[in-house]
Automatic annotation (TrEMBL):
One of its GO terms (cellular component) is cytosol. The keyword Signal does not apply. GO terms for molecular function: nucleotidyltransferase activity. It comes from Methanospirillum lacunae. This is Acylneuraminate cytidylyltransferase. Keywords: Nucleotidyltransferase, Transferase. Coiled coil: none annotated.
Amino acid sequence: MSKPCIGVIVQARMGSTRLPGKVLMDLTNGCGILGYILKRLSECCMVDKIIVATSENSKDDTLSQYLENNNYLYFRGSESDCLDRYYNAAKNFSLDIVVRITADCPLIVPGVIDEMVRYYIDNLHFIDYLSNRQYTNFPEGLDTEIFNSQILEEAAKNATSIDEREHINYFFLRRDDKYRIRYFNHNMGHDYSRFKLSIDTKEDYLRISKLFNCGGLPFNFNFIDLINILTNFEHESEKKCYVA
């Protein structure tokens, strides 16, 4: 069997309802949120391609130009039908296995992604969909999902409800009698799911920025670095800011 082509697809657009334009907002050392995510993803050893899936809406012209200028791979598709956009991005770049990342999760950890990809590959005949989002001990905001292109195509061709077209994973998760769903946990012995690390609002943006600017989070942090910083903050006055 030939080696499968593994690609990360990052969902990103400028038209966020609660925080418009957040993907290009500065995060640390002059690096924007999306730029930081892409730099971090480039450190993954198990990934062949990194693609940004954005929309054809004119609001995303600025984002597309940014990606073009920085030589990033990208695909533009439907704004409302995220499933179709995702499927066509994977098809356009000939991916066999897709790693799904969203642009509101800047604190993704390359080592965690690599570990999940290895686990998925090692258990390829027993898993269709792997996630650390639901029912796991990871902080919310390190969200990584992995699935093969076959079930993505099945979803794209058969999903009919509006929410299944909008949310990539709903089609799989609602059919756990058909698809082999697995959830990935870390082995550090503690549950860190109480921490919220995604950026949805201005308040989220300010506190995540503070982890770098005041908390001492290194640019190329690993999972242990992140947990140490979070637990330190948890015992200080910022506690409420990072606990969901």
